[in-house]
Amino acid sequence: MVIRRRTTKVRSGGSRGRIFITLIGVLFIGWGVLSMGLGLFGAKGDAVITHIRRQGGERNEVIRGRYTYAVAYSFDLPDGRRIDGTTTKIGDSVYLKATGTSRRPVRYYSFLPQINALEEDTGLKTGPVVLVAVGALLIALMREKRAGRR
């Protein structure tokens, strides 16, 4: 009596996962470069804070009394169009209310003003540099291993 083993080919979904993680890395790099580019090459405008809303409860951090705020703003382009934007800030428990008179400098790309940010969030800050570094790390980790390397 001959017993045959049934062999099944195990498919590895590794290539799809590698492509997905690499795309996330590319998106991180693009987001970081766009943010840094706004500070260096973006046109300047003056935004009016339109809404401030506290999100959720107190943050679970060592420092007590910190909250996350969603801040909405709008600014006018030289051609008269109004562009809206949002950002997220972390602040203390003091209740903030938008009066419509508070102004902040904003940066935007003149060819695509929908890409905009408050000036304090643009340029060579820690956040965009970390995004670029993490994106590059993800891409480096997902490189296909060559046959000669282990």
The pLDDT mean sits at 86
Tell me the number of strands. Answer: 5
Q: What is the radius of gyration computed over CA atoms, rounded to a whole number of angstroms? A: 23 Å
Distance between the termini: 42 Å
Describe the structure concisely.
With 150 residues, the protein is an alpha+beta fold. The protein is built from two helices and five strands, in the order αβββββα.
Mind explaining what this structure looks like?
The protein has 150 residues and is an alpha+beta fold. It has a domain at 41-141. The chain is built from 2 helices and 5 strands; from the N terminus they run αβββββα. The chain has helices spanning 14-41, 126-141; strands spanning 43-55, 67-76, 82-91, 103-109, 112-118. Strands 3-2-1-4-5 form a 5-stranded antiparallel sheet. A hairpin with a 2-residue loop joins strand 4 (103-109) and strand 5 (112-118). Helix 1 runs antiparallel to helix 2. The mean pLDDT is 86.
